[in-house]
Fold this protein.
Amino acid sequence: GSVTQDGHAGVGVKVMATENGFFVEEVVPGGAAHQSGRVAAGDQIIAIDGQRIRALNMEQVFNRIIGVPGTAVVLFLRKPGTTRDIPVTLLRASTTHSLRLFYTDQPEQEQQKSQQSESSGVF
């Protein structure tokens, strides 16, 4: 399915959900994450605003990252090969493209075959 949020703003990260948690798949050029210089592809997102997101689904993560333009969100990121969670505060900004969340819900048989359902969305 896909969800479009109008009047809401994100921070310019493409997030990927894997069986090991949520990861930054891509940093959108010109977005808040890109401008901060502190967010990179491969970073694991451990928490948002202090709340751990391991048990959440993609839509719940999406709803925590996006918000009112100009407001701040704190992403706690773990760089590859490290164990320390680094808080990065980003200001949500309206992006030129509408924010869409794409997530795939695979049928049961598919999940058993691949044992991994991945999805990603740009926030």
User: Anything to note?
Assistant: Residues 1-5, 96-116 have pLDDT under 50 and may be disordered. Residues 9 and 94 are 5 Å apart (CA to CA). The beta strands are 2-5, 13-18, 21-27, 44-48, 51-52, 72-78, 85-91, 99-102, 119-122. The two ends are 16 Å apart (CA to CA).
